[in-house]
């Protein structure tokens, strides 16, 4: 009986130690629009990336995200001042219901190295990705 209690207690202690470690290394970056829909996935830049000019943006999105095959991109500093603007363009037929790859580039030079900012992708919803200026 005592051996069973010690075994169960040991298992509980091991789980209590391993679970936080497992959780920490398996947290996912939320790259979905604020409404939680499955419309866009950004492959670069990811959350808190260090970026420099020119910045290449890449990912895939549903056709409803695009407006005539493109969508606006805005880069702002931590005070919401616009640093740069541009467009991402569909890399295929944007009339499908499947995900379509997109790409875009923006150039900028009026930023403070090491400061934080936000990359905003404006489609059928807005997606904001926190970044750090390199």
Outline the biggest β-sheet. Answer: 8 strands, mixed
Helix content: 10-25%
Identify the CATH homologous superfamily. Immunoglobulins
Tally of extended strands?
8
The residue ranges in which pLDDT falls below 50 over 5 or more consecutive positions are: 22-37
Topology (SSEs and partners):
Blueprint: H1 2-25, E1 40-44, E2 49-51, E3 55-61, E4 70-77, E5 82-90, E6 100-106, E7 116-122, E8 126-133
Parallel strand pairs: 2-8
Antiparallel strand pairs: 1-3, 3-6, 4-5, 4-7, 5-6, 7-8
Can you characterise this structure?
There is one protein chain. The protein is α+β, with helices and mostly antiparallel strands. It has a single domain, classed as Immunoglobulins (Immunoglobulin-like, Sandwich), CATH 2.60.40.10. Helices cover 18% and strands 40% of the residues. It contains one helix and eight strands. It has one helix spanning 2-25; strands at 40-44, 49-51, 55-61, 70-77, 82-90, 100-106, 116-122, 126-133. The protein has an eight-stranded mixed beta sheet with strand order 1-3-6-5-4-7-8-2, with no helix packed on it. Strand 4 (70-77) and strand 5 (82-90) form a beta hairpin. The radius of gyration is 21 Å and the shape is elongated.
